[in-house]
Structures are given as structure tokens and as C-alpha cells.
Design a protein that fits this description.
The chain is built from 13 helices and 13 strands. It is an alpha/beta fold. It is globular, with a radius of gyration of 21 Å.
């Protein structure tokens, strides 16, 4: 059966009258390609024409990184294609499925993600984050690092200037070239695999990037492989506490708003991270609120993070409430 037959005749007639036969046929060709990831062809075709989808292929995910296969769809949203938000009933992780494929994500980072960015401002606004992470690396006794998803390389430059040299990688070729030329950092174009020949490091740092990986458990395992024995992984992640609840509210509409940043493939929370780290052969050392992070309460930020940290020290079940959190894990 062809895709044209799968879209109901009434929908085809209506959309051809609104958008023209050529426009409808172009999107039908894309629908044919992505048909295995589309469960509602009428809705997909309507959204594709109304919202002018870019030619970004999508795929479905059948299994959570924790290994669970019981995924519940909670909502749909549009980000250059019709995507979905699901929740793993085993570990609670929120993930995007259908989602953009790896090739489509590479296009996002090379064509649009950094398109309007000011590189100097990009690094300057994140200096409080860099300061906190460097302090953590010093506490852990780390002397050489690898930065996965390093963007322009500002953290590599910041850390090197404070006695912690390193190497990094990023998916965006223009951004990597800028970092090499302007900051003089050892930055390589590509995913973590381009660091395979790097001598073992004391720590792998990944700041606000793990949710872009199509397979975070595999990504963490690759990070582990870059470490010397006893080395550390230091992650900073946006806290998606409540994403499933927001998704359920958006799921009351046929197509809602994204419940996390549109480019993200996963919505991490502290609790599911322990399963992912264990699957990658890593031992969780600690998970703490990020000091430089937004929150909803009218409390000085550092005071709020300190209060949150103190409560978690007393009761590990107390949630991280800041909008970002840090994870430290160790290779055995």
C-alpha cells in the first residue's frame, strides 16, 4: 500500500486545495521515506504543509538507554518534523521518539544551532559554569581532560589557562575551526570517536551536551574508554524534572509545545542517571545542584543551591530543584 493511499482522501483533497498539488506531492515523497516513523499520516502531512518542514529525516526509538522497552507516548511537537515525547515506565527517563536521525542532528549543529551565536559572548556568559567545573576538577586532582561537545572550545581555553590542559570535539565544523583559529585549542571536528587516539585522560567533561547523543549509554561508555583507571566523568545537565507532567498536559492537544529544548533527544533527571552510569561501567560519586543555574524562587542563587545541596546530604531522596545539575562518576 502506498503512502498516498494511507492518507485519507478527504485530507488529500483539502490540503491540495490549500497548498497546491506540487507542494502536497513533495511532502508525500518525504512521508514515503519516513513512513516507518509516522503513525498518523494525516496529521503528519497537515503539519508538514502548515509548518513548512525542512527535509529532516526521523526515526523511532523502541528501547530506553536503561534497557526498558515499555515506552509511553505523552505528547507530540514540531521541530522541523513531527516529533514525539515518550517516557520509559521502567526508569522514568523522558525521551524523544520519533526524533531526528543522527544525520539530521549533524545538520542542526552545522547549519542552524550556532548560526546567530556571538562566539565571544558564548564563552563569557558561561564563565560561572567554567569556574565551578574547574574547581571540581581541582578537588578531584585531575590534570588533563577531554571535553566532549566543546562548542567553540571556551572551556578548554579557560581550563588550560588555569593549569588543566585538554583536547575536545564538537559536531559543528565552523565552530571547531573558529576555536582552533581564535582560541588556539586542540579541538577536533566530529563525535567522541574522533578522540579515540587521545592518551588516557584524568577526566572527561561534557557540559550541557549528553542529551544530544542518540545513545547516551554508549556515549558514556566511550567517555569511560577515554579515562585512565580511576578517572572521572564530570557532566552538567539541564534538569528536566516535571517534563513528563508537562508532556501529559501538552498531550491533550494533537500537537503541543516542546516540553524541553527542541534539539534535545533526552530529558535527564538525577535518578535515571544512576542506571545509565551503571550500564556504562561507571560508578556514581555524587549528583548535586549546579551553582550557576536558574530556579523559580526568589532566593539568592548560591544560597538556594547550598540549601538544596544540604537537604540532599541529609536525605538522598530529596530532589534536585535547580534547573541544572552536576554529575560526577568514576571509572573503577
Amino acid at each position: 500500500m502506498t503512502v498516498v493511499q494511507e492518507v485519507t482522501p478527504d485530507t488529500l483533497t483539502t490540503l491540495r486545495a490549500r497548498f497546491g498539488t506540487d507542494a502536497v506531492d513533495r511532502q508525500l515523497a518525504t512521508l514515503t521515506r519516513d513512513r516507518d516513523a509516522v503513525d498518523d499520516p494525516d496529521l503528519w502531512l497537515t503539519c508538514a504543509l502548515e509548518r513548512e518542514f525542512k527535509d529532516m529525516p526521523i526515526e523511532c526509538v523502541s528501547r530506553c538507554p536503561c534497557g526498558g522497552s515499555d515506552l509511553t507516548r505523552v505528547s507530540r511537537f514540531v521541530f522541523w518534523n513531527l516529533l514525539g515525547v515518550s517516557r520509559c515506565r521502567r526508569c522514568g527517563l523522558v525521551l524523544v521518539s520519533p526524533r531526528l536521525t543522527s544525520s539530521a542532528m549533524a545538520r542542526v549543529f552545522n547549519e542552524t544551532y550556532f548560526a546567530d551565536a556571538d562566539p565571544a559572548y558564548w564563552g563569557r556568559r558561561r564563565e560561572p559554569v567554567f569556574r565551578e567545573i574547574v574547581a571540581t576538577l581541582r578537588q578531584l586532582g585531575c590534570g588533563r581532560i577531554a571535553d566532549v561537545g566543546a562548542a567553540y572550545g571556551h572551556f578548554l581555553r579557560y581550563a588550560a589557562d588555569r593549569g588543566i590542559p585538554g583536547v575536545g570535539c564538537d559536531l559543528s565544523a565552523p565552530v571547531v575551526e573558529w576555536g582552533r583559529r581564535t582560541l588556539g585549542v586542540d579541538l577536533r571536528h566530529g563525535s567522541i570517536e574522533v578522540l579515540a587516539d587521545v592518551p588516557p585522560v584524568d577526566a572527561v567533561v561534557s557540559l550541557d551536551t549528553l542529551y544530544y547523543s542518540p545513545d547516551p549509554a554508549r556515549e558514556l561508555a566511550r567517555m569511560r574508554d577515554l579515562l585512565q583507571a580511576g578517572g572521572y566523568i564530570v557532566l552538567r545537565l539541564r534538569n528536566n524534572r516535571g517534563a513528563a507532567q508537562r508532556g501529559a498536559r501538552e498531550g491533550q492537544r494533537a500537537v503541543g509545545r516542546p516540553v524541553m529544548p527542541s534539539e534535545h533527544l533526552y530529558g535527564f533527571e538525577p535518578a535515571p542517571m544512576a542506571r545509565l552510569l551503571d550500564a556504562a561501567g561507571l560508578q556514581l560519586v555524587r549528583c548535586t545542584p549546579a551553582t550557576y543555574s536558574e530556579h523559580r524562587w526568589n532566593v539568592p542563587l548560591r544560597s538556594f543551591a547550598a540549601i538544596n545541596r544540604a537537604w540532599r546530604a541529609l536525605d538522598s531522596s530529596f530532589p534536585v530543584l535547580t534547573h541544572s545539575f552536576n554529575v560526577i562518576a568514576r571509572r573503577a
